[in-house]
C-alpha cells in the first residue's frame, strides 16, 4: 500500500494572536506536530482590503504546503473571514484536493448561541471581520433567533502587537468599544472575542464590563472542534504527524517574536525567520 505523506498541522495568523489558539490545540492534542507561522512583517491584517488579505493568506497557505502540511488552520478571524472560502473553493482544488484549510469562524458560530440566556450576543473583532458579516451569517445559520451586535475595534490589535495592552492607553480604547457595543445591545449577556489577539486584553475587558456577562475566547472552542474533526475524518488525521513537536516561524524579527510570542503562548519559544511573497 502507498505510504501517505505526513506533516505537521499548520497554524496561521497575521501575527501573535494565533498563538492563543495554538496553546489550546497543543493542550488538547499534544501528540501532534504543529507548525506556526505569524506574518508579523505584514500585520495587522484587520484594516487591509479583501484582496490583500486573500493574497497574503494564500501565500502563507502555499508556504505551509511547501513545508509538508496537509492540514492548515487559519487561526485568524480576519483571514478566515476574507480568504478562507476563496482558498477552499478556488485554490485547493487546483493545488491539491486532498489538502485541507480550516478557519475559526464556523466552529465558533456553531456553539456561541449556547452561552446566551437573553439571546443577544456581542461580537468584538477587527474591521475586516466585522465588514465581512461572516459572524452574522454563520450564527444566523446555527442559531436563527439570536440577535448579534458587532463592534469593530481597529486599534486593539496594534496595541497588542506593540506590547501596549497593559498600558493606560489601552484602557481608553477598551472602555470606548465596550461602551459602544453595550449601547447597541443593552441585553447582551455574551461577548465573543472574535479576534485571536484579544484574549490578551481579557483583564481590562473584564474590568470595564458589567458583572455577569460571559466573555468567550476561541481557543478551547477551536481545539474541541479540531478533536471532533479529526475523529470524523480519520484519513485526514492519518496525514498529521505525531511526534509532539512544535516549530515557530515569523516573517519579521525572530528576537521580537520570541519575546512577544511567549506572552501569547504562555511559554518560552524559539522562532525561525521565513520570507513570504518572494
Ligand atoms: N488575530 C487576527 C484575527 O483573529 C487579527 C488580526 C489583524 O492582523 O488585524 O482577526
Task: Report what the structure shows.
The chain contains 13 helices and ten strands. It is an alpha/beta fold and 278 residues long. It folds into two domains: 9-103 and 220-273, Rossmann fold (3-Layer(aba) Sandwich), CATH 3.40.50.1860; 106-217, 3-Layer(aba) Sandwich (Rossmann fold), CATH 3.40.50. Helix 1 (18-28) crosses helix 11 (219-232). D-glutamic acid binds at residues 13-15, 17, 43-46, 76-78, 126, 129, 157, 195-197.
The gist of it:
The protein has helices spanning 18-28, 50-66, 77-82, 84-95, 105-112, 127-132, 134-142, 156-161, 168-184, 202-208, 219-232, 234-237, 254-265; strands at residues 9-13, 34-38, 71-74, 100-102, 120-125, 147-152, 190-193, 214-216, 246-250, 271-273. It is of the alpha/beta class. Helix 1 (18-28) packs across helix 11 (219-232) and helix 5 (105-112) packs across helix 7.
List descriptors.
single chain, 278 residues, alpha/beta, Rossmann fold, 2 domains, 6-stranded parallel sheet, 4-stranded parallel sheet, 13 helices, 10 strands, 46% helix, 16% strand, globular, binds D-glutamic acid
Architecture blueprint of SSEs:
Blueprint: E1 9-13, H1 18-28, E2 34-38, H2 50-66, E3 71-74, H3 77-82, H4 84-95, E4 100-102, H5 105-112, E5 120-125, H6 127-132, H7 134-142, E6 147-152, H8 156-161, H9 168-184, E7 190-193, H10 202-208, E8 214-216, H11 219-232, H12 234-237, E9 246-250, H13 254-265, E10 271-273
Parallel strand pairs: 1-2, 1-3, 2-9, 3-4, 5-6, 5-7, 7-8, 9-10
Helix pairs in contact: 1-11, 5-7
The structure holds D-glutamic acid (DGL).
D-glutamic acid (DGL) binds at residues 13-15, 17, 43-46, 76-78, 126, 129, 157, 195-197.
Amino acid at each position: 500500500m502507498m505510504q501517505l505523506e505526513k506533516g505537521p498541522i499548520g497554524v496561521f495568523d497575521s501575527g501573535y494572536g494565533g498563538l492563543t489558539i495554538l496553546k489550546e490545540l497543543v493542550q488538547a492534542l499534544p501528540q501532534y506536530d504543529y507548525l506556526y507561522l505569524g506574518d508579523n512583517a505584514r500585520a495587522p491584517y484587520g484594516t487591509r482590503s479583501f484582496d490583500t488579505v486573500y493574497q497574503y493568506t494564500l501565500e502563507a497557505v502555499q508556504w505551509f504546503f511547501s513545508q509538508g502540511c496537509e492540514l492548515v488552520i487559519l487561526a485568524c478571524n480576519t483571514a478566515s473571514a476574507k480568504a478562507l472560502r476563496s482558498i477552499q473553493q478556488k485554490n485547493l482544488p487546483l493545488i491539491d484536493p486532498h489538502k485541507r484549510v480550516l478557519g475559526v469562524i464556523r466552529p465558533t458560530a456553531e456553539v456561541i448561541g449556547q452561552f446566551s440566556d437573553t439571546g443577544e450576543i456581542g461580537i468584538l473583532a477587527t474591521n475586516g471581520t466585522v465588514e465581512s458579516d461572516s459572524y452574522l451569517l454563520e450564527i444566523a445559520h446555527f442559531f436563527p433567533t439570536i440577535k448579534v451586535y458587532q463592534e469593530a475595534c481597529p486599534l486593539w490589535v496594534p496595541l497588542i502587537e506593540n506590547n501596549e495592552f497593559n498600558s493606560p492607553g489601552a484602557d481608553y480604547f477598551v472602555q470606548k468599544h465596550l461602551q459602544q457595543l453595550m449601547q447597541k445591545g443593552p441585553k447582551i449577556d455574551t461577548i465573543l472575542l472574535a479576534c485571536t489577539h484579544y484574549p490578551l486584553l481579557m483583564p481590562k475587558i473584564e474590568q470595564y464590563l458589567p458583572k455577569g456577562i460571559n466573555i468567550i475566547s476561541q481557543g478551547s472552542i477551536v481545539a474541541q472542534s479540531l478533536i471532533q474533526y479529526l475523529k470524523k475524518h480519520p484519513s485526514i488525521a492519518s496525514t498529521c504527524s505525531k511526534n509532539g513537536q512544535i516549530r515557530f516561524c515569523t516573517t519579521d524579527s525572530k528576537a521580537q517574536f520570541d519575546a512577544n510570542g511567549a506572552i501569547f503562548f504562555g511559554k518560552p519559544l524559539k522562532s525561525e525567520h521565513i520570507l513570504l511573497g518572494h
